[in-house]
């Protein structure tokens, strides 16, 4: 069990995210509540990604990469999110990780929700409205991340890549996360991805937003009697106290 200590209004609160293998995740209790929270969180995550696109002020790091890819591959944004998620899952193989139900759902649902939202939400006009939509998207994305992380049904493909590399290399989550995100931003920008003030705002706010809402949205589960040594470490726990978030 890996607790995260969060300070809210001067009170120390502990978030307990339990390291479990895929079978243990399904046997940990409160499954209906956790599944509902998982899918609502993933749907909201896709909606907020689409809002970041419509605001037109810059995308989150992985969004820059995704947008750059679709400049060269005939896919919609959501289709590329799905395709790249499964490619990233292939990188889990040498890391000796197993995807959970939440991992597979993450790879599928977010891209579909993004495309559905883009189909009904038009481009946002006016700088003031664009800034407002961007801020709503960033905060909503953080809440969505806290929801699917708190369901304790497995990390997203990108989260799992991050924590897997952390475990294998022995480096801190902060260093691995930063290295990966700088790489995808640079590659995405070179491919034609959209950088802007929204990219910076997202980088600065997403961690604190997830950290704020995670205590409220983490579902308490039954701790397994035995832990598989290769169980995936908590996707929201970092050795330096920083939440992991990326989808």
Quick recap:
This protein is mainly alpha-helical and 247 residues long.
Please describe what this structure looks like:
This protein has 247 residues and is mainly alpha-helical. It has one domain. Helices cover 63% and strands 6% of the residues. The protein contains 10 helices and 2 strands, in the order E-E-H-H-H-H-H-H-H-H-H-H. Strands 1-2 form a two-stranded antiparallel sheet.
Which features would summarize this protein structure in a list?
247 residues, mainly alpha, two-stranded antiparallel ribbon, 10 helices, 63% helix, 6% strand, disordered N terminus
Layout of strands and helices, then pairs:
Elements: E1 2-8, E2 11-17, H1 22-26, H2 31-55, H3 61-70, H4 77-90, H5 92-95, H6 101-120, H7 127-150, H8 157-169, H9 173-191, H10 197-217
Antiparallel strand pairs: 1-2
